[in-house]
Design brief:
The chain has 138 residues and is mainly alpha-helical. It has one domain. It has seven helices and no strands. Helix 1 packs across helix 3, helix 1 packs antiparallel against helix 7 and helix 5 packs antiparallel against helix 7. The mean pLDDT is 92.
Length: 138
């Protein structure tokens, strides 16, 4: 039981750090005007506490997939995180954006929106998976 608790705790912490990385990378993309360059209507003007808290919480919760789905994959560490990052990406692109009337793959926000979503979630997964594997050999 303690082993399972440790897995959840480390995955949660790893996801929080990955969520922070997600937020920082999104902010840098906006700061460097990459959204404008690719005609994508996203914006992270400044790193407010509500924005950071939302990304950290979502990153933590999505990272619990490392515990639940990790044993079913041969990949480990950062590679496992990259593979599992496709799940939140698919959710955002196929369920969330269409539900917000932003179209399939968020096309209403711009043609290249899906690339940024995949990039941000890949950063989250790479970091969360790497930290999880480093601290708890799955």
């Amino acid at each position: 039981m303690r082993d399972l608790f440790n897995r959840f705790a480390i995955a949660y912490l790893a996801g929080a750090i990955g969520g922070l990385a997600y937020a920082l990378i999104a902010w840098l993309c906006d700061h460097w005007h990459l959204f404008k360059l690719f005609s994508v209507q996203m914006s992270v003007v400044y790193l407010s506490w509500p924005y950071l808290a939302e990304r950290i919480l979502k990153g933590s919760l999505w990272a619990l997939l490392l515990v639940f789905l990790g044993p079913f994959f041969k990949a480990r560490g950062a590679l496992l995180g990259l593979i599992l990052s496709l799940i939140p990406s698919a959710y955002v692109l196929l369920i969330y954006y269409p539900g917000q009337q932003l179209g399939f793959l968020g096309l209403a926000k711009g043609v290249y929106t899906f690339i940024f979503v995949l990039l941000f979630n890949a950063a989250w997964g790479f970091i969360a998976g790497g930290i999880y594997a480093h601290h708890y050999r799955s």
